[in-house]
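Q: Focus on the shape:
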Amino acid sequence: FATGVGVSRYDGHAFANYTAYDGLAAGGVNEVAGDGTGNLWFGTDTGVSRYDGSSFQSFSQADGLVPGSIEAIAADHQGNLWLGGAQGLSRYEGLGFTSFGDSIGWVRDVAADPEVGVWVGTRNGLLHYDGKQFTRLGMEDGLGSQVVGAVLVQDDGTVWAGTGDDWEAGA
């Protein structure tokens, strides 16, 4: 469970709580995701923390991650991790980050497609990365709103985009 002061793990009997004192990048945790190799990733207000089952390693802008809060995390089918937040999108390839900041904008959700790409919900439309470049889809393409707060890709490649009028920070 992500909480405003850290993250809590429930094993069916008791809670264990982890905070910045335990190695999280920050106390406010916005997102939790697995990477397919057994690690858990926690998007926080100041970066991201990886938990390997025994300890945390934190990453921030100093490591190449987009600055600010991380609110969306998804693993793609090539083993990369995509992390998005208020100031853009980063891809972690295992050794470092590639960031797509100003060109992406505020990222609310990320979902991998069954091929090589990812879909990104932003405040200015739905983005698709095909492994080489981003394509933006918006209302002019038939999307219900420019504001995409949730994305789901089904196994057959069908993309669902949850849209709205607007969202505020933390909403």
The first strand starts at residue 2 and ends at 3. The radius of gyration is 16 Å.
